[in-house]
Amino acid sequence: MFTPASARAMSAYRQVGVQSMVDGASPQQLIKMLFDGLVASINAARGAMERGDVGEKVRHIGKAVRILQEGLLAVLDKEKGGELADNLAALYDYCTTRLTLANARNDVAMVNEVAQLVGTVAQGWTEMTNAPAPAGA
């Protein structure tokens, strides 16, 4: 019913650490954190599926869907982003649909598909944010 004091302390420490990272992050770093969380959730869901752990699968797929919908999709600026933003919105919607189906059907192949799609975009985002700023910027 109650967690040991050390577990509660560790959880509080993690929350403070996460909040500190978020508070000091640039918009680009925040998007990278969303991608990192998304990839981690997808990988955890895949592992849970392989172990037959339904509860963990549901939890991690739910977290991944929330990151896609409430995080990545919600911050897209379709006016400034134009076609790229529209394409990303379509990709995020597709990934949400595939993860939902993967959850219902317990289909690890669908999770793998989403992992590959998201991994490609996440890698591109990381490379873009780590690239040196152009001269005169």
Query: How many E-type strands?
Result: 0
* Class computed from helices, strands and strand pairing: mainly alpha
CATH topology: Four Helix Bundle (Hemerythrin (Met), subunit A)
Helicity, as a percent range: over 70%
At CATH level 2, the architecture is Up-down Bundle
General form = globular
Kindly give the count of domains.
1
Would you list the SSEs in sequence order as H and E?
Answer: HHHHH
Roughly how many Å apart are the termini?
Answer: 55 Å
Low-confidence stretches: 5-13
What is the CATH class name? Mainly Alpha
- Count up the helices: 5
CATH superfamily membership: Flagellar protein FliS
What amount of the residues lies in strands? under 5%
Give a description of the structure:
The protein has 137 residues and is an all-alpha fold. It has 5 helices and no strands. The chain is 84% helix and 0% strand. The N and C termini lie far apart (55 Å). The chain has one domain: Flagellar protein FliS (Four Helix Bundle (Hemerythrin (Met), subunit A), Up-down Bundle).
